[in-house]
């Protein structure tokens, strides 16, 4: 009889224990880093609207600002920022995030050289400081780790003075938070994902 009462008491208390144990669930944001301030520990992220592995779509404005976790155990590798959102080889268009207008911009290009299935360890890109802007040839040499694509692109002359991060794809990150703008956990997917191997 005593065992039965104890068992019933435990069953009655189980929902309360679960509620107290779980607490408020947080949310997850995933996207590409377009700005990173190491001193202030802040990032600016363009959200991936699809959140489909292998098929991201960075098209959500405005960018989401986050303060990074102070606990090193909740923080993955530091992110690399970049403004290139999409490199469309079919349409021959590079979509970038323009921080001055806070909007997206499509920049047409012509292929000078393109190589596919290029891994990060390939001598073509390993140890190289890409992107490379060649003002004389009017080209930008860049690499997409996700697409495993090495590209030398001829771009319109008015874009040759834009900074190198214009042509670089920022790291893709996943952020867990409860309070908007304050990351509780920060994971750098680009530095840990399989396509970087």
Could you walk me through the main structural features you see in this protein, from its secondary elements to its overall organization?
It is a single chain. The model is unreliable at 2-21 (pLDDT under 50). The strands form three sheets. This protein has a five-stranded antiparallel sheet with strand order 3-2-1-11-12. The chain has a four-stranded antiparallel sheet with strand order 7-10-9-8, with no helix packed on it. A three-stranded antiparallel sheet has the order 4-5-6, with no helix packed on it. The protein is globular, with a radius of gyration of 22 Å. The chain has helices spanning 2-22, 189-192; strands spanning 27-37, 42-48, 58-67, 84-88, 93-98, 103-108, 110-115, 132-134, 139-144, 149-154, 172-177, 183-188. It has 197 residues and is mainly beta. It starts with a helix and ends in a 5-residue tail after the last helix.
